[in-house]
Amino acid sequence: MNVFIGIDRAGLVGADGETHQGVFDIAFLRHLPNMVLMMPKDENEGQHMVYTAIKYDEGPIAMRYPRGNGLGVPMDEELKEIPIGTWEVLREGEDAAILTFGTTIPMAMEAAEILAKQGVSVKVVNTRFIKPLDEEMLAGIMKDNMPILTIEEAVLQGGFGSFVLETSHDLGYQHVEIDRMGIPDQFIEHGSVDKLLEEIGMTTEDVVLRMQKLARQKQKRA
């Protein structure tokens, strides 16, 4: 069936309360055959994803989008289709890679900037398609033996990071170090998004610490 599903309040929702935390959808959607699942990095990419979904006629497609306002980025006047299952490199790097999407991209970019000043070169990838994965880009990263940190504002069990781990095994890259950052196996209580992220260890500082550890492990193996 060709259907477009809009998933409102994807991720942590803050003031809406603990019953509205949008953190389970990836885990219960990605196992469905032929499902396409995506999330934009900003409102401009979002309009292109809506256009892509409307034009898509090969099965169900879903777009996650967060509660709140857009980032205020310039909007393209002409809509375009985004090739299904393609990712986007936002920052080049050689020592390690961060794979993330949606609302956690600014956190990843800020962490990469901090790490660059410490001499750690980090690639940041907008993994806008959660399913299907961009296996070609993922294989290229793993072929370069770059340790990977996945970040998702969603539950870890059955989520995007789990999908990356499964795919790395299927592609024969079991040796690549992969760390996952996301919502732990617990219900998230009411609170501001920033406060909740701090409580579960998902801040820019936490990303920097995780990446420093991955970079050190790579140096030891070299």
From TrEMBL:
CC annotations in GO: cytosol
Residue ranges of domain Transketolase C-terminal in the record: 85-207
Cofactor(s) listed: thiamine diphosphate; Mg(2+)
EC number of this enzyme: 2.2.1.7
GO molecular function (one): 1-deoxy-D-xylulose-5-phosphate synthase activity
Assigned keywords, A-Z: Isoprene biosynthesis, Magnesium, Metal-binding, Thiamine biosynthesis, Thiamine pyrophosphate, Transferase
Pathway stated in the Swiss-Prot or TrEMBL entry: Metabolic intermediate biosynthesis; 1-deoxy-D-xylulose 5-phosphate biosynthesis; 1-deoxy-D-xylulose 5-phosphate from D-glyceraldehyde 3-phosphate and pyruvate: step 1/1
Keyword Ribonucleoprotein: no
PANTHER family associated with the record: 1-D-DEOXYXYLULOSE 5-PHOSPHATE SYNTHASE-RELATED (PTHR43322), 1-DEOXY-D-XYLULOSE-5-PHOSPHATE SYNTHASE, CHLOROPLASTIC (PTHR43322:SF5)
Entry protein name: 1-deoxy-D-xylulose-5-phosphate synthase
Source organism phylogeny: Bacteria, Bacillati, Bacillota, Bacilli, Bacillales
